[in-house]
Amino acid sequence: MRKTVLITGATSGIGEAAAAKFAESSDRLIITGRRKERLEELASHLTATWGTEVLPLCFDVRDRQEVEKQLGGLPPEWSQIDILINNAGLAVGLSHIDEGDTDDWDRMIDTNVKGLLYVTRVIAPKMVSRGSGHIFNIASIAGKEVYENGSVYCASKHAVDALSKAMRIDLLKHGIKVTNIAPGMVETEFSLVRFKGDEDRAAAVYSGLEPLRSEDIAGVIHYCAGLPDHVCINDLVITPKAQANATNTLRKTK
Ligand code: NDP
Ligand code: 8X3
To answer: Is 153 a catalytic residue?
Structure first.
């Protein structure tokens, strides 16, 4: 059955790939992000390729009033959301706790934790009133483990991990499923954002190994969303074959 899927952070990476995957299966999409041009290009592309109905909404998930205005004021034909993919997020910087940039910390906590909460606070009641829905939280392997220099990003993703568990309890009686997705290394714009545009540092993250592609994660989300209603995958850690955990990778040397 055709579903309405809301994906935050669909202008690149995992969110964009998830949008393509759900479009391919004829679902309807609400896609969000801050980069308006990219959002509109993606919407046109999905409609031209798969005939998908798409509603692009440009806003910053950190802006609570804007989240409430945009998602609280959805047109009636778009307000029944079956699947929410809380994907918008980022890492900024990589530094020891005594040297970190507090503006970077604010960006990560405000986006990864507070932004996810603002979106969920608007959408969850709509699911509760219908007694159905499926929420995906894109956490991270950094929400399962911590690594040197990653303290605040790891803390923000541990918060997402905790929220997934807590949401599953609170929403249980309303028939809403919550799936926590915890990817390892996925080659997207993630490292470029983390290193503030430094392409060499970003490329080095994935050198000598085959990282996950956004499509790999999108495929897993789509699979979980397509399972029978009585089945809920609660939590998945997904890494490339060359990654054992947050810190151990197998790289080919030249
Ligand atoms: P990308 O940088 O490619 O995509 C991030 C998306 O989030 C973009 O669409 C961006 O849109 C959106 N976004 C970021 N900040 C905001 C904001 N303030 N308001 C609205 N949208 C925002 O990275 P990924 O696809 O890799 O990241 C997606 C999620 O996956 C993140 O939560 C990330 O933490 C998580 N993750 C990524 C891993 C990886 O290795 N790549 C591993 C584990 C988890 P725009 O800039 O247009 O606003
Ligand atoms: C992104 C993966 O290992 O850089 O969440 O934290 S990692």
So the answer is: yes
Q: What is the pTM of this model?
A: 0.99
Per the structure block, which two tokens stand in for 201? 């540092």
Segment 103-135, tens digit of pLDDT: 999 999 999 999 999 999 999 999 999 999 999
Q: How far is the CA of 247 from the centre of ligand 2 (A)?
A: 10
Q: Which atom of ligand 1 is nearest to the CA of 185?
A: 40
Distance CA 15, CA 32 (A): 9
d(CA 178, CA 156): 18
Order of strands, sheet of 235-238, starting from the edge strand that comes earlier in the sequence:
54-58, 28-33, 4-7, 83-86, 133-138, 176-183, 235-238
Q: How many residues are present in the chain?
A: 254
Q: Which CATH number fits domain 4-238: 3.40.250.10, 3.90.550.10, 3.40.50.300, 3.40.50.720?
A: 3.40.50.720
What is the number of the ligand 2 atom nearest to the C-alpha of 191?
4
